[in-house]
Amino acid sequence: MNLKWIIIAAGILVCLNFSMVAQQKPQTLLLMPYPANVVQQEGSFRFSKAFSVATEGPANKRLYSGASRFLRRLDGRTGLFFEQEHVTAESKPAAQGLLIKTQRAGEVKLEEDESYRLRVGSSGIVLEAVNDIGALRGLETLLQLVQADEQGYFIPAVEIEDSPRFPWRGLMIDVARHFQPMEVIKRNLDGMAAVKMNVLHLHLTDDQGFRVESKVYPQFHEKASEGDYFTQEQIREIIRYADERGIRVVPEFDVPGHATSWVVAFPELASAPGPYSLENNAGIFDPTLDPSNEKTYEVLQGLFAEMAELFPDPYFHIGGDENEGKQWDANPEIQAFMKKHKLADNHALQTYFNNRIISFLEQKGKRVIGWDEILQPNLSKSSVIHSWRGPKGLQEAARQGYTTILSNGYYIDLMHRASDHYLNDPLPKGNTLTEEERKRVLGGEAPIWSELVTPATIDSRIWPRTAAIAERLWSPREVNDVEDMYRRLDYISFRLEELGLQHKRNQQVLLRNLSNGKSIEPLQTLVDVAEPMKGYTRNPGGTTFKTYSPYTLFADAAMADAPAARRFNRLVEQYFQTKDEATKAEIIQWLEKWKENHALMLPLIAQSPVLKSIEELSANLSTIAALGLQVLSADAGVGSAKKKAQSAVDKKRAKEQLQKAREQGGRTELQVVDAIEKLVLKDSTSSVGG
Fold this sequence. Notes:
Elements (H helix, E strand, L loop, with lengths): L2 H21 L13 E10 L6 E4 L5 H17 L19 E7 L11 E6 L2 E8 H14 L1 E3 L2 E11 L5 E7 L7 H13 L4 E5 L1 E2 L2 E2 L8 H5 L8 H13 L3 E5 L7 H6 L28 H17 L4 E3 L8 H5 L1 H9 L5 H18 L3 E5 L12 E4 L3 H9 L3 E4 L11 H5 L12 H4 L2 E8 L9 H5 L2 H10 L7 H15 L8 H10 L6 H7 L2 E3 L21 H4 L5 H16 L2 H27 L7 H22 L2 H9 L3 H11 L6 E3 L2 H9 L9
Parallel strand pairs: 2-3, 3-5, 8-9, 8-17, 9-12, 13-14, 14-15, 15-16, 16-17
Antiparallel strand pairs: 1-7, 4-5, 4-7, 6-7, 10-11, 18-19
């Protein structure tokens, strides 16, 4: 029987019995995304220097390069100095090795079969897949299975059958606002492959820059990039690199709004007179392409024909978001054009514009994607609706017959916690879509908009939280235990570093620079309980930070899911449930550390004035930590001494201090205030968050 149908049948059984599988999931396996079906067995496979990899069956050449990378990563991790240098079609199976079996060459396209079956026993490992792309997914699972003990490196005996829930599992990187060079794109493609993501969406144009070379209209990259753009050869290299990892590359050219870079290159395409210059602020700006001007379509068709050839994927994103139409309203010629063509409003005008673009791109073999503002009456049904404003819009688009992708709830630049993204499902339980409508939901994408992101900080804004999104898009819906997700995410975060990702390392670099070469320990203590302000609050109005502002500050070192805060908050919840003395002792240790930390911070601040913005933040942490210690010490007393200590805690004053501790410092916020408030006010019903 074809492997695909074996896995589909197994998937049906998994769905019927998944609540039991989820509860009995082996807690020793640190896999992400978690596979559809895992059966752990007795025994293990142990690695030796003689370990080798062989293949059997037809495959694309990407299998051999992927298997060779697997071998080098495994060798680097184990230090065994494997004798095999490369994996080729001629590599012979060894007595103690990995055999990869494939049935055909894979294609990097939507709906390609990515399923695989993995069997690990004491005598060897067999990885079976319909094609090489499924085999690549299985190799990543295999690497995550590697464990160690005093005897060496091994993989526990296990059988895994796995396939993705959604065919579109993407990461969108905004290279327009802050340009992200080749090395950033490549290392993040490696991270994507490690967690089985399969679409890289490049947001190439916006008000701040036009980031790809055009040979047809060189004005774009010459006048509107400030020298930061991808050459066409670099784009081909990105596509080749992605293809080797089973990842598609989808370009986005945002029109008709977000068009400042377009009209810097071609002022005659604008809906209002210039002059125009590239934006340095963030936000929504007026410059908009003129849909009544035939020159607009001439330039777009010439450029898009060139880009359609450069980017081979059949999907082509035209943006279409946040066009407020101010220039259209103020332009008499555009208003006359609308009247002539019986276009009732700006939505109808943009639909006219979109349909002309869609018609042309379809002639070039492309299928158009647009943000959900393009969903208006008379829009071509071939369009794909990319939902960023909410799941309601996604479901409405699916009901109307449109294919859809979800990004609402996956905006990783907004610095929400991994758990928020993890529980955000494109097709949540209880959704009211029909079976046919559900098929139109392709999956989702995690966008990293780059207003506040540079090459030095982008990895920490993408990883490790995007691994949790990858699991939501790959694994069965019933895999949704948040605590277990975090348990595995911490391990995956560490493993992503071996791919060259800098989400952990660069925090240390930033802290060393901020400390002016002094010990970073007090700063590390503070940053481990602080997170950047969430949503759009860090950069109100889009004007506090400009494209050229410093992105080397405390807020840039801080990350979502501050690790010490997450640990402490969990301890407080546990203590209120159990009153366990060991838990209480660890809480006290944290509070004592934070109470003393401000005294250690003051000399650093004196020698590095850039830290002055977090002085109050540090002082507030010390103050509320002392509050928590006072309450816990009072609780430890007996009789009249306990009552006296408890009465000494001024609840009104404590509330004022806790409220003050919620104030931002250096555009960051403390994440342990709720937990300490719970201790101080003895409120067992309140939730613990920030």
